[in-house]
């Protein structure tokens, strides 16, 4: 038994796109046939019509808001949005209420994921109790309860001593420390980047140095602790330089970049629209160019969305008072494909790798590849059809995006998790 995905286009081991048939059986990939006729019963075949077949996309930076923020998002709605975007594995940040900062809360979260998630969810545990930066959590107990890694994302760990101890404990457990890098003494209470847009509108700006100085501190701590240290949503040219130098020195540091920091800079903000407010903020054109260069030369390891849903009422408070963050799961691939692959900046293989095998390799995941025996986590993507981004059609509760109306190609049309079709375009 099982089902065949027929007539898909798949990258072979040499990185060439070939017409391919994939057999899914018992939740795994049972066979891959390249350029061969398929003999199977019609009822056991899904003809994907020459569309691209890729490993299910991986996003290691999302906010699902549950518990405590269910008006913004839930595990169910956020993972449905992930499936709609072609993502089959996401890692959920711990800035919830309560945070997963103790074993019992992590066990509750794992049970809730099993009950309601549409895709694979890897839950982060907090580095400090309540993410307050005052007392470390019980790393061993949280790992036993299923923590994926440790982070206080949303706030930077301000004490170097606290971060060093966290890194030593994480290293002893072979776990990663994942950091939102921001020195609170340097943020200036800003809402946007300290640049052209801030000056034009008389707003307080967040300087680039507040991020880069934390990364510089942390890579040295990671070297001393022997820890895997991962930089969230890198945004400045100085930060890229620090990570590049650290990698050259042999320090175990990895980094991610968001689609919005690759696509936009502060000069692109059209006015006082809170849908352009995120943290880190949209930086300068030079910063954006450095991020693209860093991704291409391997300084930045992969792409993650930082999917951050908020209610319409929250974002209506204006750019200074509204919370930071935009949604990204449902638009990441089409935006990046349209504006980087179609224009020749990235190859299609590079884009797919940055959203699949690269994050998997950085964190030792079994996901991110299509091979016989691997989990049948698969996305089917239509590279031809053009559609405009319409927030009202989002599966996410959050509609807060600066990309409304952007016309894109590269839309996912089917998503399988463990061989089960969890989302299909046009199907309720």
What does this protein structure show overall?
Catalyzes the reversible cyclization of carbamoyl aspartate to dihydroorotate. Its cofactor is Zn(2+). Belongs to the metallo-dependent hydrolases superfamily. DHOase family. Class I DHOase subfamily. It holds the Pfam family DHOase. Pathway: Pyrimidine metabolism; UMP biosynthesis via de novo pathway; (S)-dihydroorotate from bicarbonate: step 3/3. The structure is a single chain. Helix content is 29%, strand content 21%. It has 428 residues and is an alpha/beta fold. Strand 11, helix 5 and strand 12 form a beta-alpha-beta unit. Helix 6 runs parallel beside helix 7 and helix 7 packs parallel to helix 9. The model has no long low-confidence stretch (mean pLDDT 96).
Largest beta-sheet characterization: 5 strands, parallel
Poorly predicted tracts of residues = none
Strand order of the largest sheet: 9-10-13-14-15
Mean pLDDT: 96
Q: How many β strands by DSSP?
A: 20
Helix content: 25-40%
Number of contiguous helices? 13
Termini separation: 26 Å
Brief overview:
The protein has helices at 75-84, 103-116, 139-144, 160-172, 196-201, 209-225, 237-248, 259-263, 285-296, 312-315, 332-341, 348-354, 357-363, and strands at residues 3-11, 17-25, 28-34, 45-47, 52-55, 57-62, 87-92, 120-123, 150-151, 176-179, 192-193, 205-206, 228-231, 253-257, 302-303, 378-382, 387-388, 407-408, 411-417, 420-424. It has 428 residues and is of the alpha/beta class.
């Amino acid at each position: 038994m099982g089902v065949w995905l027929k007539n898909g286009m798949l990258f072979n081991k040499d990185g060439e796109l070939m017409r391919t048939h994939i057999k899914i059986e018992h939740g795994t990939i049972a066979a891959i046939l390249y350029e061969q006729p398929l003999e199977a019963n019609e009822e056991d075949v899904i003809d994907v019509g020459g569309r691209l077949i890729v490993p299910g996309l991986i996003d290691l930076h999302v906010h699902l808001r549950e518990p405590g923020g269910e008006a913004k998002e839930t595990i169910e709605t956020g993972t449905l949005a992930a499936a709609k975007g072609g993502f089959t594995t996401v890692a959920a940040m711990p800035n919830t209420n309560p945070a997963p900062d103790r074993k019992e809360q992590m066990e509750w979260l794992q049970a809730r994921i099993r009950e309601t998630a549409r895709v694979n969810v890897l839950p982060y545990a907090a580095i400090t109790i309540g993410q307050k930066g005052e007392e470390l959590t019980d790393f061993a107990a949280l790992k036993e309860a299923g923590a994926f890694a440790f982070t206080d994302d949303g706030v930077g760990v301000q004490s170097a001593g606290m971060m060093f101890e966290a890194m030593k404990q994480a290293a002893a457990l072979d776990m990663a420390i994942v950091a939102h890098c921001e020195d609170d003494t340097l943020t200036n209470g800003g809402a946007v980047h300290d640049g052209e847009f801030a000056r034009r509108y008389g707003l307080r700006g967040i300087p680039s140095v507040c991020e880069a100085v934390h990364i510089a501190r942390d890579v040295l701590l990671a070297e001393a602790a022997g820890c895997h240290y991962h930089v969230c949503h890198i945004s400045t040219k100085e930060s890229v330089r620090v990570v590049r130098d650290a990698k050259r020195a042999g320090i175990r540091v990895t980094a991610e970049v968001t689609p919005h920091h690759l696509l936009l800079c502060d000069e692109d903000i059209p006015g006082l629209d809170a849908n352009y407010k995120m943290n880190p903020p949209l930086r300068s054109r030079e910063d954006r160019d450095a991020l693209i260069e860093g991704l291409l030369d391997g300084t930045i390891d992969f792409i993650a969305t930082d999917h951050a849903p908020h209610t319409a009422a929250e974002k209506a408070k204006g750019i200074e008072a509204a919370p930071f963050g935009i949604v990204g799961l449902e638009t990441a691939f089409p935006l990046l494909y349209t504006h980087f692959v179609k224009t020749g900046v990235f190859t299609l293989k590079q884009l797919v790798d940055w959203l699949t095998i690269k994050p998997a390799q950085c964190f030792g995941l079994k996901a991110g590849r299509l091979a016989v025996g691997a989990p049948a986590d698969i996305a089917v993507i239509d590279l031809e059809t053009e559609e405009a981004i319409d927030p009202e059609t989002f599966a996410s509760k959050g509609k807060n995006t600066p990309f409304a109306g952007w016309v894109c190609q590269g839309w996912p049309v089917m998503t399988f998790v463990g061989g089960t079709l969890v989302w299909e375009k046009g199907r309720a």
